[in-house]
Design a protein that fits this description.
Number of strands: 23
CATH architecture of the largest domain: Trefoil
Oligomer: single chain
Helix content: under 10%
Order of helices and strands: HEEEEEEEEEEEEEEEEEEHEEEEE
Bound molecules: 2-acetamido-2-deoxy-beta-D-glucopyranose
Radius of gyration: 23 Å
């Protein structure tokens, strides 16, 4: 016979022992230039937890906000000065209208008109289920109103949930239609920020030219660099050669999301992040800490450690390098990892050989 109580106790125990992430220091910028979906979280409310924000055409160019499956999934949200936008349709998230006398909540929707916006601050936090690092959109204020407040969702038609604004200090609850407070989480989508599709290399005796063709859903960008050969910093591949600084490139390593080993970070000795991140800056940080390995990720993060699991060993195919295709915040000519992919380097022995891995 199945002991339901024992199973419930086991599950409760599992939830409590979920590993928690370490929060990188610093404040995230209020602009998110890559496309994302907005996930809704409230771990104590399974009916809304981990579902997504959808758009529903509302006439006049407005789009109302519902929890899926109602409405259309939106994969192309961006954040402009703290305001959620869908640039393709020219709408942004605002608050206004349909004020409820019972619980003092107000509608959150998107429009091309100039209604006062909902202003958010991207903030690192740990996912309540997985313990992994995530970026949440914390409500700063309804523009023109006191700071604070929450985004909440409440029943609308046919069991759907619509999005609303719950003002700071509010204790009123509509017993018939409770507005459930939720966290909005940034989930980068496949097009973010660019996809490295092709690497073309041509080499002549006197110079080497590398061309990386970057494409995303709507744009195509060519990056060309030419340098006299041989130099210590030239590279025909889409990573930054750091052998002159005493570090060799190992490859583009998977983080926990792409590895199935159950461990957390590929490198877990130290971390930092900044708006001016480059591969040089990261490896200098790791060198200062005496670490054997270092690497960049997510454009702005730097991770260091003295070992990594064999399950995180990067591939040596050219194609594998394309996962590390996020431009560094401090130098758009360099790649600093990707979405849960780490541009991984190893410290070369002092005075010893220093050669990057060979990719083919
Ligand atoms: C979940 O919703 C309830 C009801 O609004 C709220 O009191 C609680 O703080 C929410 N929890 C989280 C983690 O947002």
């Amino acid at each position: 016979m199945i002991n339901r109580k024992a199973i419930a106790a086991f599950l409760a125990g599992a939830a409590v022992t979920t590993a928690q992430c370490s929060i990188p220091p610093g404040t995230l910028p209020t602009n998110i230039g890559y496309n994302f979906r907005a996930q809704v979280q409230n771990a104590s409310r399974p009916e809304v937890h981990n579902k997504y924000l959808n758009f529903l055409e509302a006439g006049g160019g407005d789009k109302h906000l519902f929890i899926g499956p109602v409405g259309t999934p939106t994969y192309d949200l961006t954040l402009v000065d703290g305001v959620i936008h869908q640039q393709a349709s020219g709408v942004r998230a605002v608050i206004g209208g349909e004020f409820s006398e019972i619980d003092h909540t107000t509608k959150l929707f998107t429009t091309g008109r100039s209604d006062p916006a909902a202003q958010f601050q991207p903030t690192y936090a740990c996912n309540p289920d997985t313990g992994l690092l995530q970026i949440e959109l914390r409500l700063v204020r309804w523009v023109g109103h006191p700071d604070g407040g929450f985004i909440c969702v409440r029943h609308s038609f046919d069991g759907s949930h619509e999005f609303r604004y719950d003002p700071p200090g509010n204790t009123l609850i509509d017993p018939a239609r409770e507005c459930i407070r939720v966290t909005l989480v940034v989930i980068p989508t496949g097009t973010a920020p660019t996809t490295l599709s092709t690497v073309v290399t041509s080499t002549t005796a006197s110079s080497s030219t590398s061309v990386a063709v970057i494409s995303s859903a709507s744009t195509s960008v060519s990056v060309t660099s030419t340098s006299a050969a041989p130099t210590s910093t030239s590279s025909s591949l889409p990573y930054t050669d750091q052998t002159a600084n005493g570090w060799r490139y190992i490859g583009c390593a998977p983080e926990e999301r792409w590895a199935t080993d159950g461990a957390f970070r590929t490198l877990s000795g130290a971390t930092t992040s900044s708006d001016t991140m480059t591969n040089e800056a990261c490896l200098a940080f790791c060198a200062a800490g005496g670490f054997a390995y270092g690497g960049t990720e997510w454009s702005r993060e730097c991770w260091c450690g003295n070992s990594y699991a064999s399950t995180r060993q990067p591939a040596t195919t050219l194609a594998s390098l394309a996962k590390c295709n996020y431009r560094c915040t401090g130098n758009s000519g360099q790649f600093c990892g990707g979405d849960s992919w780490l541009s991984l380097y190893a410290k070369c022995p002092t005075g010893g050989p220093c050669q990057n891995a060979v990719f083919s």
